[in-house]
Design goal:
This protein is an alpha/beta fold. The chain folds into three domains: 3-177, Thiamin diphosphate (ThDP)-binding fold, Pyr/PP domains (Rossmann fold); 190-354, Rossmann fold, CATH 3.40.50.1220; 368-557, 3-Layer(aba) Sandwich (Rossmann fold). The chain is 39% helix and 15% strand. The chain is built from 25 helices and 19 strands. Strands 3-2-4-5-7-6 form a six-stranded parallel beta sheet, sandwiched between helices. Helix 11 (262-270) runs antiparallel to helix 15. It is globular, with a radius of gyration of 25 Å. 53% of the residues are buried.
Length: 588
């Protein structure tokens, strides 16, 4: 049996588990693992600028392709604590990532050694498992269990803490006999799906709520097949967006308080039966439960047993992997007569054709609705969008069009500021040939902005649409030079106005200083050309390209506290010549 250090064994296990990329920052307590990676020479390392950024890169990497597991690696102490936000984000959205941290020597634990912190205890609430390995011979088995847990049941992150002396200890390990443990996922039975179909068949106006569990199960194709088979409209959640193409006749729109469509909310309110698959009934989707539930019948299928009944008790609850449930549902539905739901489907299609929000505005400063209209025009259906939190995410969900699973890569529950840049870089690593477009506000952009340098260093090109409704840095510049014309161009006619507030950052200069390219857009008619130019620049320079769009300071975006009380601020786009990317036209 071969002898090797535990660090060498750890690298060998990662390779046997299919890992090809690692995101992280070297440091004293994890350097034996880095030396093992360098000696092995097979794992590609992406050097982050901050360990939280590395954890979000690992998230973006995992979320991009089925089967991916992102790995983030850092030293002891603050490297691990910096990963906590990424672990929380991954746990909240059921995303498997592996965090490997260095640690002080075993003999120094509990002695307040330099950068020695009980990271396993800190990480336990935001992981499926967090463990410190005290015996070198247990490193392979611990990692084997880690991968098994990440993939089994509801996916999620794991942290493994490796003391430096454990890493350097020699052990006996037969790499050739190592095999990943079989993945354990619950599967719906025929009896269970028959019960669900009985409830569905009794309904006159049923809908399917498609959650992120369908994406995790790589089951979007099965969802569409089932929806077409039973002729039931689909309302995706924010995490399930893309499981049914936006221009599919059975796509009824998203529902919720913020990231929703008028048609989606109206369809939920009109429905009498709801089949939820791989969703959590999250509050941004449901709003006030008395309105959302109404007198409707609910069927809930989820991979995690404790999700059934967590928010409310369904009429039928099934613990199952979304893919396994859909396969059984399809098989059972094929043996049943197909109900005639043509009138209900036509009603849902009509809602989508007549309840679309207006996007075409000529205002200067630019209204964000126009930005998404031009993005729909300039970007193709294969674009992978990345977004985290804030009005930019809310408006994107209301106005963008998504046609593929894993093409809306979104931090759903946690929503940490700064997530977008590193996650987009992780997406680029996972799919280097993709058109990747990130969307964020100016404040989110400034958190972890240093990670743009990673994109420049490792040639990870993507377009970052930066929606800036804060002008202070530019206004101050104009004030200093008494450039009245520039202030007017920015939408202000008084350089001495006391009401000019913001964050005082020239994002174009910062991006260029980090080795990237950047454009700034002031007028709505320039948006389309700027987006096209940015795509050309990513191809030419192979670095991130920031498109900073100067927005009006305040935009009222539709939202509310209950799905029957969304406050709308703009008229409808239906029938307007200035809405060339309407769903109605896309579906023709």
């Amino acid at each position: 049996m071969a002898r090797m250090t535990a660090a060498d064994a750890a690298v060998a296990v990662l390779r046997r588990e299919g890992i090809t990329h690692v995101f992280g920052i070297p440091g004293a307590a994890i350097n034996p693992f880095y030396a093992a990676m360098r000696h092995d020479g097979q794992l590609e390392h992406v050097l982050a600028r901050h360990m939280e950024g590395a954890s979000h890169m690992a998230e973006g990497y995992t979320r991009t392709r089925a089967g991916n597991i992102g790995v983030c690696v850092g030293t002891s102490g603050p490297a691990g604590t910096d990963m906590i936000t990424g672990l929380y984000s991954a746990m909240a959205d059921s995303v498997p990532i592996l965090a490997l941290t260095g640690q002080a020597p075993v003999g120094k634990l509990h002695k307040e050694d330099f950068q020695a912190v009980d990271i396993a205890a800190i990480a336990t609430p935001v992981t499926k498992w967090a463990v410190i390995v005290l015996e070198a011979a247990q490193v392979p088995g611990t990692l084997q269990k880690a991968f098994h847990l990440m993939r089994s049941g509801r996916p999620g992150p794991v942290l493994v803490d490796l003391p430096i002396d454990v890493q350097t200890t020699e052990i006996e390990f037969d790499v050739d006999t190592y095999e990943p443990l079989p993945v354990a996922v619950p599967a719906a039975t025929r009896h269970q799906v028959e019960r669900a179909l009985d409830l569905l068949d009794r309904a006159e106006r049923p809908i399917i709520v498609a959650g992120g569990g369908i994406v995790n199960a790589d089951a979007a194709g099965l969802l569409v097949e089932f929806a077409e088979l039973v002729d039931v409209p689909v309302v995706p959640t924010l995490m399930g967006w893309g499981t049914v193409p936006d221009n599919h006749p059975l796509m009824a729109g998203m529902a919720g308080l913020q990231t929703a469509h008028r048609s989606g909310n109206a369809t939920v309110l009109a429905a009498d039966c709801v089949l939820g698959i791989g969703n959590r009934w999250a509050n941004r989707h449901t709003g006030e439960l008395d309105v959302y539930r109404g007198e409707r019948t609910f069927i809930h299928i989820d991979i995690e047993p404790t999700q059934i009944g967590r928010i409310f008790a369904p009429d039928c609850g099934i613990v199952s992997d979304a893919g396994a449930a859909l396969r059984e549902l399809i098989a059972a539905a094929r043996e049943r007569p197909r109900p005639d739901r043509s009138a209900w489907v036509a009603e849902c299609v009509q809602r989508r054709a007549t309840l679309e929000r207006r996007t075409h505005f000529e205002n200067v400063p630019i209204k964000p609705q126009r930005v998404y209209e031009e993005m729909n025009r300039a970007l193709g259906p294969d674009t992978r969008y990345v977004s985290s939190i804030g009005l930019s995410q809310i408006a994107a969900a209301q106005f963008l069009h998504v046609y593929r699973p894993r093409h809306w890569i979104n931090c759903g529950q946690a929503g940490p500021l700064g997530w977008t840049v590193p996650a987009a870089l992780g997406v680029c690593v996972a799919d280097p040939d993709a058109t990747v477009v990130a969307v964020s506000g100016d404040y989110d952009f400034q958190f972890l902005i240093e990670e743009l340098a990673v994109g420049a260093q490792f040639n990870l090109p993507y377009v970052h649409v930066l929606l800036n409704n804060s002008y202070l840095g530019l206004i101050r510049q104009a004030q200093r030079s008494f450039d009245m014309d520039y202030c007017v161009q920015l939408g202000f006619d008084n350089v001495n106005s006391p009401d000019l507030r913001g964050y005082g950052v020239d994002h174009v200069k910062v991006a260029e200083g980090l080795g990237c390219k950047a454009l700034r857009v002031h007028a709505p008619d320039d948006l389309f050309a700027a987006l096209q130019d940015a795509q050309k620049m990513t191809a030419e320079f192979r670095v991130p390209v920031v498109v900073e769009v100067m927005l009006e300071r305040v935009t009222n975006i539709a939202m509310g506290a209950r799905i029957d009380g969304i406050v709308e601020f703009e008229d409808l786009a239906t029938g307007r010549d200035d809405a060339p990317t309407s769903i109605a036209s896309l579906a023709e």
